[in-house]
Amino acid sequence: MKFILFLADGAADFPVESLGNKTPLQVAKKPWMDRIAREGRCGSFITVEDDMPPGSEVANLTVLGYDPKQCHQGRGVLEAAAMGVKLRDTDIALRCNLICLENGRIKNHSAGHISTPEAAELIRFSDRYFGRDGVRFWPGVSYRHLLLLEQGSPDLDCAPPHDHVGEPACDLLVRAKDKAAEPTAALLNRIIRDSWQLLPSHPVNQRRVAEGKDPANSLWPWSPGRKPKMATYRELYGITGAVISAVDLIRGVGIYAGLDVIMVEGATGLIDTNYEGKADACIAALDDHDFVFVHVEASDEAGHSRDVKQKVLAIEYLDSRLIARVMKALEEKGIEATVAVLPDHPTPVATGNHVHGAVPVAIRTPGVAPDSVQAYDEESVKAGALGTLRGDRFIRTFLDR
């Protein structure tokens, strides 16, 4: 038996007035997701408990069966793994966004989805300016980058920029959770404030402004942590696996889980990602892997942008261009596979941030009788046989462990 998990990042939502008080999943044309629900078992999944931050790092650890309270160390360490940056036990890694400020407030978390080459130039410039005394910057994809501190404390209260769009940046600076972390907080805040003076005059930003684009006029470090300890899927479940994603965070989770990372040309993390390429890579990976985790970021980015039409379209593209292609290939090749579809967390278009809340789950297992659910969305799955899942119950049900 093979196992394929389709994750539609941030696709879960709440009723939207412009959609007739329906959610994007209820409105979107998604016959293949609906088929998985109709031929499988459905339920709701609490991926983030109320006492944990509703970020993708926590949610995806839970989706894969890990206890975030035991192994959550922030995004930075996961993204470092995906970027091939080796961490010592004493290192602190942080996600570092390039963001856009306007009139002292966060305009967006992505500097207008700055291109990777532009961002790399700005991050290399920042590393030359700040990269001393145990401080290093590493360029990533688009607005997502890595800041590494060789010493200090991760006991910091940092504001995820996507959760604070429109708020004054000065009110969101890093705070120390204890006295020992105060020097680290002071260092990070100096970097942030200095970037406000440093980045606007850089030629990359001058060009972006001239072209009517948002400048990347602020560095924004957040989600600090040290290297986690996690058992692999081979150790936990006796299976081999692979992860397909455009996002360093997800690839990093996969690396710590012992999954092979499969890169797909044209995978962007946005609605223009290479859906077909991801589908083909998934089918090919089944030749020598038991489990494939296929992650698509586009619906989450649409939620952050508060663009309901884009979110519906992202869901429809995932269904028609990726899931349909995989499901048809399974049938043509006679591959027996358990297939699941779910988001990691809600990213409601009304607010544009990650929030707590259950996500819909559908698991289609060959030979297992379906329940009565006929459509895949937040409301329909409540009648499903799986009920409300928590902790590792989803992955153990999915893998039949």
Describe the protein's topology.
Layout: E1 2-8, H1 24-27, H2 31-38, E2 41-46, H3 56-63, H4 68-71, H5 75-82, E3 92-102, E4 105-108, H6 116-130, E5 135-141, E6 144-149, E7 156-157, E8 175-176, H7 182-198, H8 203-210, E9 218-225, H9 233-237, E10 241-244, H10 248-256, E11 260-261, H11 275-285, E12 291-296, H12 298-304, H13 308-333, E13 337-342, E14 359-364, E15 387-390, H14 393-398
Parallel strand pairs: 1-12, 1-13, 2-15, 10-11, 10-12
Antiparallel strand pairs: 2-14, 3-4, 3-6, 3-9, 5-6, 7-8, 13-14
Helix pairs in contact: 5-10, 11-13, 12-13
- Topology as H/E string? EHHEHHHEEHEEEEHHEHEHEHEHHEEEH
- How is the main sheet built? 8 strands, mixed
Mean pLDDT: 96
CATH class wording of the largest domain: Alpha Beta
Low-confidence stretches: none
The shape, in one word, is globular
CATH homology superfamily of the largest domain: Alkaline Phosphatase, subunit A
The CATH architecture of the largest domain would be: 3-Layer(aba) Sandwich
Our Rg estimate from Cα atoms comes to: 21 Å
Distance between the termini: 13 Å
Number of helices: 14
- Beta-strand fraction estimate: 15-25%
CATH topology type of the largest domain: Alkaline Phosphatase, subunit A
How many individual domains? Answer: 2
Q: Into which percent range does the helicity of residues fall?
A: 25-40%
Please give a handful of descriptors for the protein shown.
401 residues; alpha/beta; 8-stranded mixed β-sheet; 5-stranded antiparallel β-sheet; 14 helices; Alkaline Phosphatase, subunit A; 2 domains; globular
